[in-house]
Amino acid sequence: MYNIPPKIHLAYLPTRIDKLNKISTEYGKNIYIKRDDLTGMELSGNKVRKLEYSIAQALKLKADTLITCGALQSNHCRATAAAGAKLGLKTVLVLKDGEKTPPSGNYLLDLMLDADVRLISPQDYKNVDKIMDNICNELKANGQNGYIIPMGASNAIGMFGYMEAIREILSQEKELGIHFDAIVDTVGSTGTFAGLVLGNVIYNAGFDIIGFSVSEERSYFQEVTYNNIKDCCKYISNENYTHTPQSLGIKKEDFNIIDLYRGEGYGINSPDDFKLIKHLASKEGIFIDPVYTGKAFKGMLSEIRHSQLKNPVGSDIPKDGIHADFSKYENILFIHTGGLFGLFPKAAEIADCIRF
Ligand SMILES: *Cc1c(COP(=O)(O)O)cnc(C)c1O
C-alpha cells in the first residue's frame, strides 16, 4: 500500500547496533548506538542512505552531473563527491565559505575526489537554490545533464533512506531481542528525522522519535519536517492509496525536536562539547563529531539527567524551553550519523580543551 522508489547500492548495510555499557551504567538507562557512521569510509554517515535514493533518481533521469550544496565542511557534499567519483558522474559542490582556510577535513577530501568546488560567501549562499539552478542551466547549454540534490539530500526522495532504516531497526530488534522505546537523532536539515518519523508510522514501529537540533529552532524544524513528509506522501501514494499527513495521523506539534543544545550556533562549539566527545571516546572507544552528533549526544545525556532530577544542581541544562521526558524510557537507541572528518579542522581547539 506504500510505493517505495528504487535505490542504488552505496551503503554498507545493515549498520551495527551496540550497547554503550559504561555510559548506560553512568546514566541508569540502556543506551545503544546505531553505527551509521560506518555506512562506509568515504561514503560514511547518514547522507549515504539518502543518496541511495537521490542518485537512483538522477540516473533514471540520465544525469551526468550531480549538483549539491552545503557548508565548507559538509559531510553530505563529501559523500556526494565520493558517490560521483565511484559512479563516473561529475560533481559540482557549492560550498559556503565562511573563512578562507587552507583545505582540511571534508573540504580537502572534496578536492581529492575531484569535485568542481565553487566557494561562495555566506551572503550569496542565501540564494544557493538559484545558484544551483544557474549551474544546471549552464550545463544544459553545454549538452550536459545536471541533477540538483538539495542541501543534505533532505527532500522527499532522500527521506526514504531513513524510512527504510526503520525497517532495518525493526529486524535488528528481533535479532537482539530488545524493544527500543526511543530513537534519538541529530537534526541538521531534517531529512533523517522526517524519514524516521514517517517510517515509524508506516511500519507501525511504535518508537518515540526524538531529534536534537544543531541549528534552527524547534518550531522552524517542525514546519520543515511537516513539509518534507507532505511531499513524501506524493511518492508513497499510488493509484489505490492516496496518503497525506492527515490520513496517516501525523501532526506538526507532535514532532519532538529539542533545540536547547544548539550552543552558540551551527558549527560553533563550547569546551564542554569537546569534553563530552572525549568522554565518549575514552569510555567506549567511539568518536562522535563536533558539529552534529556531539551536540545531539550531549543533549540526550543532559535530557536524561533532567528527566531524572528535574533541576540538576550546578548543571548547564537550560531551565526554560521544551524538554523531552526520558523518564519513560528504558532502552534508547542513538543514531550515530557520522561526521568524523569534522573533528580534524578543529584539532587545535580540541587539543586546547581536552588538556584539562
Ligand atoms: C547532515 C548530518 C546530520 C543531520 O542530518 P539531517 O538529515 O540533515 O537533519 C547529522 N549528523 C551528521 C554527521 C551529518 O552530516
From TrEMBL:
One Pfam family this sequence matches: PALP
Single GO BP term: alpha-amino acid metabolic process
Cofactors named for this entry: pyridoxal 5'-phosphate
Domain Tryptophan synthase beta chain-like PALP: 10-307
Keywords: Pyridoxal phosphate
Domain of life assignment: Bacteria
MF terms in GO: D-cysteine desulfhydrase activity
Active-site residues annotated for this sequence: S74 (nucleophile)
Chain positions found as N6-(pyridoxal phosphate)lysine: K47
Recorded coiled-coil stretches: none
Family: Belongs to the ACC deaminase/D-cysteine desulfhydrase family.
Name of the protein in question: Tryptophan synthase beta chain-like PALP domain-containing protein
Species: Johnsonella ignava ATCC 51276
